[in-house]
Amino acid sequence: MAAGFPGVRLGRATVRWLQSQSSSPLGVIGCRLPVMPGIFSGLPSQKQIRLVHVAGNQSNSANSTVLRRLPFATVSQHDLEFFNKVLPGRTITDPDLLESGNVDWLKSVKGSSKLLLRPQSTEEVSQILRYCNERRLAVNPQGGNTGLVGGSVPVFDEIILSTALMNHVLSFDRVSGILTCQAGCVLENLSSYLEELGFIMPLDLGAKGSCQIGGNVATNAGGLRLLRYGSLRGTVLGLEVVLADGKILNCLVGLRKDNTGYDLKQLFIGSEGTLGVITAVSILCPHKPKSVNVAFLGCSSFQQLLETFQCCRGMLGEILSAFEFLDSSCMKLLETHLKLVNPITESPFYIVIETSGSNEAHDEEKLHNFLETVMSSSLVIDGTVATEESKIKALWAMRERVTEALTHDGYTYKYDISLPVEKIYQLVTDMREHLGDRAKNVVGYGHVGDGNLHLNVTSPTKDPALLAAIEPYVYEWTARFRGSISAEHGLGLKKKNYIHFSKPPEAVAIMGNIKSMLDPHGILNPYKTLPDYLS
Ligand SMILES: O=C(O)CC[C@@H](O)C(=O)O
Ligand SMILES: [Zn+2]
Fold first, then answer.
1. Which keywords does this chain's UniProt record carry (predicted)?
2. Are residues 125 and 182 in the same domain?
3. Residue 387's domain is classified under what CATH number?
């Protein structure tokens, strides 16, 4: 047991504590996150990445394929003059300023764009795209650049269209809880804005300090609150999108119900900027919960973790807002690389449970009863509960900073898999066995409540032989159980050629047709999402 951690231990002491503290204000959620830096400085110089690891369309095996630049036009002096006129002072060609937009957060892919445009309005985005479409200039829409699949940076010399300056809240309706804002609003800023008004955003991510709502919607980001508030496909009520030819599609309605025709906004949610540039979003925001508790628990097996989950759903019901896990290998990385202290006894698995409700006494009683049950039935070995904001933050860090810890462990191969929940950890065990000592670490963590595993494999350096051992094994394994090879991160550049493992050819063909219809010249985020033969 780690001494001095500022949580509250479970067992009898917890019972006493919960009774005696029932009137004390509990911590609030919404400002607990370590911020993933979205912008890097001092990056090591890297060659333009032309070799990407993708599966050959025929073989499905991991191999290095040269991705060829499609025959788009290149930016001319005349083009620069046009953009300078439309965006005076916001047409960036300085290589130092372009550096961060060309490299992804993981520093795993790098483009060589020579031009970064920073529009402030939908009209400006429309003028840019109309021009680029006529000139056949490729465009890479970019939000906070926190994506993990190489979808947010150019591959070659695509023009980077940054939404960073489109960062205004347009309206907020306190009766309906509908927020309408520009695409470049940073998620954390929206959260702070709403919290002042007694509301929260329906999504929360480790990258909240850098990621932008437009990028969140374009990638259909999931995150930590999905279990409670559902996916963006439900909470996004309306979108404004600029199409490849510059046409503005204003579907920015704020209606809970709207069955008039096809729900076009759904096409753009999760399309990774390949069908249009999202410029504004209407989103339904829940009331800020009055009472928040976080429990950090240890289990001795994944089976016990699953039983704890079942019990948790039954006993906490409507107040359960997150059920996340990490394995002991993740814990070791947190301890080694980030010097975090495990707040409880060393265990094979750790769970983060969050409750959010409107009645402190009621929530505490429910949580207490649940904890008593799982402790007394030995489903849980040890645990701690936090209610104050700083302590809640510290417990959440154990889950949210795993991604950051992994970046210090070497080159990381990342997989974001949806499976029937009882299967999720078997993939980690099988992968460990399959790779033997070829990998440095094979770790599993993620969103149990959503059946979403983050499987990460580290290696001291980039290792093509290791990659060939992981892929397509990981995708075949996933397909065997009818899982998804991209639960919440998207396909981007890195996963696009594996789409067939999760979608039938008929579905992929329809996606290709939709792309051709909306972006006939293929200028929007080329080389992403759809397999090579449809680019
Ligand atoms: O780094 C990853 O693999 C997962 C990142 C993110 O989706 C998370 O849930 O922490
Ligand atoms: Zn995740």
1. FAD, Flavoprotein, Metal-binding, Mitochondrion, Oxidoreductase, Transit peptide, Zinc
2. no
3. 3.30.70.2190
